[in-house]
Each structure stands twice: as structure tokens, then as C-alpha cells.
Amino acid sequence: MKKIIYFLFLFLFCIGIFANAQDNAGLTLPAGFKANLFAENIGGARHIAITKNGVIFAKLNRANKQGQSIVRLEDTNKDGVADKITGLANYGGTGIYLNGNNLYASSNEAIFKYELNNNDEVLNPLSPVTVVTGLINRRQHESKSITFDKANHIYVNIGAYSNACQEQDRTPGSKGKMPCPILDSAGGIWKFDGNKENQTYGDGMRYATGLRNVVGLDWNTQTNKLYVSQHGRDQLNTFFPSLYTDAQNAELPAETFYEINEGDNAGWPYIYYDPSQHKKIVSPEYGGDGQKEGASNFINPAVAFPAHMAPMAVLFYTGDQFPAKYKNGAFITFHGSWNRAPLPQEGFFVAFVPFKNGKATGEWEIFANGFAGTIDGAKVTSTNKAKARPCGLAQGPDGSIYVSDDTKGTIFKISYNK
Amino acid sequence: MAQYKGKGIFLICILLFGLTQSIQAQNVINGKKIYETRCLVCHQADGGGVPNMNAPLDGSTNVVGNDIGRLVKIVKNGFKDKVELDGYYYSNDMTPNPDLSNAAIADVLSFIRTSWSNKASLVTLAQVNNANKGNQKKNSK
Predict the structure, then answer these.
(1) What residue ranges do the domains of chain B occupy?
(2) DSSP bridge pairs for A405
(3) Which of A165, A204, A294, B78 gives B96 a disulfide partner, CB atoms 3.0 to 4.6 angstroms apart?
(4) How far apart are CA A200 and CA A102, in angstroms?
(5) How far apart are CA B130 and CA A55, in angstroms?
(6) What span, in angstroms and rounded, lies between the C-alpha atoms of A49 and A155?
(7) Highest-confidence range of A21-25, A180-184, A383-387, B88-92, by mean pLDDT?
(8) B95 CB within 8 Å of a chain A CB
(9) C-beta neighbour count of A149 within 10 angstroms
(10) Is B86 on the interface with A (CB under 8 A)?
């Protein structure tokens, strides 16, 4: 009898291991890739950064139950699962970036700098250096994502606190302001010096403008250029039912991925990008009718994605673990839409954008899907039902990538085994 | 004769009850239509909202609470106070609905107060009229 029970347990145990190894943490991946849960329930994890030893720092949207808003995750026994989890700070926010031994993190108004020791432990958890402060936070599009170029300059997005710069935000019939005054202090990317302290608007420069809300940005070290992903405007159908049907709103405007040069203007709020016409179309708040083209000096996207899926992070893949086609291409996380209703929501996946000779080809494909956790790939009708919403992205020292989720705070690890 | 009288009153009562019931159902049906065209986009089909962005109506203590005046004001004027609602903050700006009649506001509030897991009372036209008077007084002060 004992033996039978023993074998039964052994059998169940094996099934357990097998199921875990096979189900890829619920994700669908290209052949040869596998995924596992690196951590769960750490709190809504926005962006993540990884040290050269593989320690992950996750920035939380708001402080977790322990009152901490930066979580440090270490996999000490190297089994692919975090086993030592600690934390610091208490301000909510999105941005986090590792630059050598310096860990930069953002609240919705400021950027702070911490120093790491050789064990990747934060030396000054209670006394970070304030690098940038006083950035606009009017709650709408409030997150401040950050990246760096090779010369230690910080690039931070300051989202527009508005949908389309109307006189009255999100109010039918309210005209767009001309010129849009928001663009003086938001709706763009600002550049600051990573070495200086207590900088604010006057110390930095507006590097690019006409960007409604950028959450994902990364420096392409290969071509030495900034890339950003923008969240396009909402509610064309609810405000302009005579110009746009529900079905058109579900596909318009494109979520856009731009290569940015200093001084670029991407055109918000005056235009939006129509992915089916491949044109910059004048916003209806500024007299557009769905056809009229906008000024040509606004830049074109490198890739146009379907509407409303909310790109959250960009990662140029520089590792050697994944097959060659991924090298120097860009991964982009998509949070999943809400503004496609009444049509089903889309997104909730990680996309891959191939690059050739330092330029995006214009194509894209779904790399990892299934984060929403619906049964048999059913569509999500209400955004809050998605189990996980992809947000942050980072590349580990071994070339695996990690994806964070900001609903409950899952961290997925995705690797390739030849 | 007295017997018939009693029956008659009983019948009238049933009729009246039935009538108010169907008026109430009609309110909620109207309210659902308004919800679908004006509110669903943000508060979603299940009333659960969008995390960190659009507040949930399902399960909200304010939505099923007694302060009808506040709800009327929110629907009419929109809402961007970014205050804590049941422990969370929401970053979006809610669209105002200045063109909705008091009756339509009563209907949409009746719908959101009795849908999903919400089981609060319906909102009457009189309550909305009253709330508007109250709001006007406050505004003119």
C-alpha cells in the first residue's frame, strides 16, 4: 500500500514538473523558445532593469504591501526563478534604468539616482540623488520612462495631459487649441544630463515634440539613435460619430514606433497616422474629415501598429542566445487596449520588429502571446479581465529576455534552447 | 358590492404594481442603451473599468451609495478630480454629458446601480431634478 502511494506521489510529481516545463507559463512562443515564471505577485511592475549579474530591479506603479516601490529580485540558485526578493523606495512610477553602477528610477515627476555595490545591492536606498525634478504630472499620461545614450544623457518622455489638446479635454464638439500650449512642457521627449543634480525644464532641452504619450523608449546602440513608441489618440468614434464608425475607431489611429532625431516633431495633436492609408491625417478637432492630409514636416513612423494596443516598452536585442534574425531588432510589449470597445480588445502580447541595415523593415510579428490568460485564446472583452498585461522588458546577461506585468506583478522569463 | 370593491382595489393595485415594474424595467433598458453609447468605452462592458485609468462602476461604493447628487454631477459635468476611489486612483478624464436630459441621467444611473454585482435602488427623475437644483444653488453661491 505504502508503495502504491509512493508511486502515486512520484507520478503526480513528474506530471507537475512536466506540465510546468511544457506550458511555458501560459504563453505561446515561436518554436524553440520557452518561458517560465521568474516571479509572481510582486505588485504592478512597470519597467525593469537587469544588472550584468542578472539581478532584476522592477519599478512598481505604486508601493506594494511592504510599502516598497522598487523591487530587487535575485535568482541565487540559478534555477530561473527569483528566490531572494527585497525592496526599497516608496514612490510609484514607471521608469528604471541601469547605467553601470548607477540605478536610475523615476516617479511621475522626478528622476532619482542610486548607487550599487559589487553585489548589486543599493548603497543609498534612503538617500538617492535627485537628478531631475518638477516634471509635469497631471495624472493623465503621467508616467516618465527613461533611457540613456552612450554619453550619459537621459531621455525622458513627458506625456501630454490630454487626449487631443481640446479646449475641454474629451468633450464632444470642443475644438483643438491652436497652437497647442501643452507642447511647451509636455507631449515630447526631454533630454537631461545624467551626471548633474536637481535639473528641471530650464536645464534640459526638448529633444522631440508632437508625441502624445510615449511609454516605451530605448537607445539603439547600433545606429546611435533614439526610438520611441507612442500611444495614439482615443475616441474618434465617440466624439465624431459622423466621421468614424466603431469599427474604424477600433483600427484608427495607428500606435506608432518612431526613429527620433533631435528636433523631430511627430505631429500630435494636429495629425494622427492612418495605417491603412499610410498617411498623416488631420485630427478632427483641427478640422480634419478622415481624409485631409496633415503637414509633411511631421515625421513618419518606422512601424505602424493597430490602434489602441498601448506599446509599453522597447528593447533592442543585442544578445547571442536567440536566433540571428532577432539580433539588433526591437521587441515591444503591448499592454492591451481598452478603447476598441465595443469591439473585442487586442494586444496583451510582445511583438518583434525586424531591423535590416539599421532600419526597421516596417514589418512586425507577434513574438509572445497569451498574457491575458483567456481560455483557448478567446478575445478579451473588458480590459480588466486580462490576467497579465505586458509592460516592462529587459535583456538578461545570458541573452534571455524578461517581461513584466503591471496587474499583479508577474515577471516572465523567455529563453531559447537550440 | 363591497366584495367587488375589494377585488377592484386589489386589481388596480396589481395593475399599478405591474406598471411601475415595467416603467422601472424600461428605465434600466434605456439606461443600458445610454451606457453602451457613452460610458462603455471607458468603464467597459463588465463595468469593471480599466486598471489605473478608468474607475470601475461595478462594486464601487460610491455608485451604490446614497449620494445621488454626486453621481448626477459626475455624469453631467464629467469627472477629473483624480481622487482616491475605493483605494485606487484613475488617470483618465471622464467626458461630461451636458446634453443628457434629467430623465436620461436617471436611466443611466439606474442601470449602473442595478447591473453586474450592483444591487442598489433605482434613481428617479425627481431625485435628478432635486440634485440639479442643489448643484445650481451650490454653483451660484
Answers:
(1) 27-140
(2) A390
(3) B78
(4) 20
(5) 60
(6) 16
(7) A180-184
(8) yes
(9) 16
(10) no
Does residue B67 have a pLDDT over 90?
yes
Q: Does B80 touch chain A (CB under 8 A)?
A: yes
CB contact under 8 A, A384 and B48: yes
Question: Per the CB < 8 Å rule, is B95 touching A381?
Answer: no
Name the residue among A168, A169, A382 with its Cβ closest to that of B48. Answer: A382
ipTM above 0.85, yes or no: no
Q: Which residues contact B111 (CB under 8 A, 6 or more apart)?
A: B27, B28, B30, B31, B32, B34, B35
Partner A contacted by B59 (CB < 8 A): no
B54 and chain A: CB distance < 8 Å anywhere?
yes
Model pLDDT for residues A360-389, shown as the tens digit of each residue: 999 999 999 999 998 887 899 999 999 999
Mean pLDDT confidence for A118-126: 97
Reply yes or no on whether the pLDDT at A17 is more than 50. no
Measure the CA–CA gap between A379 and B119, rounded to whole angstroms: 28
Reading the block at residue B112, the C-alpha cell is 449602473
Instruction: Read off the pLDDT of each residue in A390-409 and give the average, rounded to a whole number.
Output: 97
On whether any CB of chain A is under 8 Å from the CB of B94, the answer is yes
Can you say how many angstroms the Cα of residue A366 is from the centroid of all Cα atoms in its chain?
A: 15
pLDDT at A103 over 90: yes
Secondary structure class of A226 (helix, strand, coil): strand
Domain A35-416, architecture per CATH: 6 Propeller (2.120)
Handedness of CA A329, A330, A336, A341 (dihedral sign): negative
Q: Order of strands across the sheet with A365-368? A: A311-316, A330-334, A349-353, A365-368
- Tens digits of residue pLDDT in A219-232: 999 999 999 999 99
- Cβ pair A412, A402 in contact under 8 A: yes
Select the residue of B41, B56, B80 nearest A235 (Cβ to Cβ).
Answer: B41
Sheet holding A188-193, edge to edge: A146-148, A153-158, A188-193, A205-209, A264-265
Q: Which CATH architecture has domain B27-140?
A: Orthogonal Bundle (1.10)
Q: Is A238 on the interface with B (CB under 8 A)?
A: yes
Using CB atoms, which residue from B36, B50, B89 is nearest to A383? B50
Instruction: Tell which of A60, A139, A308 to mutate to test the B interface (max B CBs under 10 Å).
Output: A139
Q: Locate A297 and state its grid cell.
A: 514636416
A118-142 average pLDDT score: 96
Distance from CA of A384 to the nearest CA of B (A): 5
Query: Would you call A166 an interface residue with chain B, using a CB distance cutoff of 8 Å?
Result: no
Query: Would the CB atoms of A170 and B78 count as touching at under 8 Å?
Result: yes
Instruction: State the nearest Cα–Cα gap between B57 and chain A, in angstroms.
Output: 12
